[in-house]
Amino acid sequence: MKLVLLTPGTGSYYCGVCMRDNALARRWIQMGHDAVMLPMYLPLTLDEEPVQSGTDVFFGGVAVYLQQKLAWFRTAPEWVDRILNHPALLRWAGRLGGMTGGTLVGELTYSMLQGRAGNQARELDKLIDWMRADGKPDAVWLSTALLAGLAAPIREALGVPVLCSLQGEDDFLDHLAPPWRDRCWEMLARQVSDIPCLVAPSRYFAELMRTRLGLRQNQIRVVPNGIALEDYASRSVPAQEPPTVGYLARLVEGKGLGLLVDAFMILKKRGRVPGVRLRCAGAMTDRDAVYVESLRKRLEESGYGGGAEFLPNLGREEKVEFLMGLTVFSVPAVYSEAFGLYVLEALAAGVPVVQPRHAAFPEVVEATGGGRLFEAGNAESLAVALEELLLDRAEARRLGAAGRDAVFAKYGMEHLASACLDLTREMIDLHGGRS
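Below the sequence we write its predicted C-alpha cells.
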C-alpha cells in the first residue's frame, strides 16, 4: 500500500509524537509498503534519521500565520511562498514556540479546523496537488484530530479513506482563550463526525474523546502506542548507583516537573535514602528554560541543588544511556495524558515507573506490570512511592524486569504498525476498495 502520514513538526525541540510517527513510517517501509511522512507547520526535530530527507513542509507556519492575519497572503505569488517556507526561516519560527498565544492561537486553530472554508485553503490545495503528483495514496493518516479539517477535502479530492489518531487534543483545546475554546470544540466535533476511524492510544482517552465529541461507539478504536526497541534490545540493565530518580519528557509544568522537584526535596528532608539524586531530561525551548531555571533556584535555596541535574534535548543514544542509569522513573503529569510514551521508554530500559493514579496511567501500569501509582497531584504521596522502591531494590528490579518484558512483548513498533495496517485495509474496503 501507499500511505501518507501528516505530522505537525516542532521546528526546534524533540516531540514524542513526531518520533513515534517517524518510527511508524519506517516500520511500514520495512514491511514492504510505500510510506511517506509529511511534516506540517514546522520541520520535524527527531532523535533519529527521518524516513525522508529534504521533504517540503506543508502549511508552513510562517505562511499560515500571515494568511490568517493578512488577506493578501492568501493569494500571494508562488515566490512569496517559497521565501516563507525556507527551512531556515521555519526553524527560526520554531524557536518562538509557545511565545504566541491567546486569541491568535484560537483563531488559527479554528481556521485550520474549518478546512477549505478557512484562511489556509490555498495550502490545502497545494497539499492535495502534491499527493496527486507523487502518486495517489491508498490512504492518508492524520497524526492528530487538530488536522481534521483536512479529512473531507482530501477524501473528496482523491477518493481515498482518511484515518485519524487522537493524541492529547483535549489539553490543547481546553487552554485556548474564550470564545475560541468552545468554538474549536464544536468545529472539531463537526469535522470528525464523518471520519470512520479515529484511533486512541488508551481506553481512557477513547472514552474521554467519545464523550466530548459525541462520537458513535464504533467510531473510535483503541490501539496502544509503541516504540522502536532496537537501541534497548542489545543492552543489559546495569546496577544503578547512586540511587537516582529520573524524568524524561518536555521540561514543562504540565508534565509535573515541579511536582517531582517537590517530591525530591521531601525525600532529601526525610533522609532515608542517602545520596539520592534527581536527573531530569527532555525537550526544552527557550521559554521552557525560564521555568527550569526557577526550579534550579528553588533547589539551590533549599540546599539540594547539588543533587539535581537538568539535561535538555538529549539525542537518542544519550537518551537510552540516561534511562539505563536510573533507579526509578516518574513523569507525574498533572493533565489528562492520553498515554505517555515515556513510560514505555523507561520500562524498555528496565526502570520501574511511579505514575499518577489518573488519566491513562493506571491502564498502562496495569498492562505492563512495571510500576506503582500515587495520588495524583500530591507530592507527599509521590515521595512515599518513590522512597519505597528506592529502599526495596529487589522489588524495583522485579517491577523493572516485568515492565521490560511486557514492552518487548506487546509495545514494539511492529505491533503498532501491524494494527494500523489492519485498520487501513478495513477502511479501504469500507470505502469501496478504491486505491
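The chain has two domains: 2-228+413-431, 230-410.
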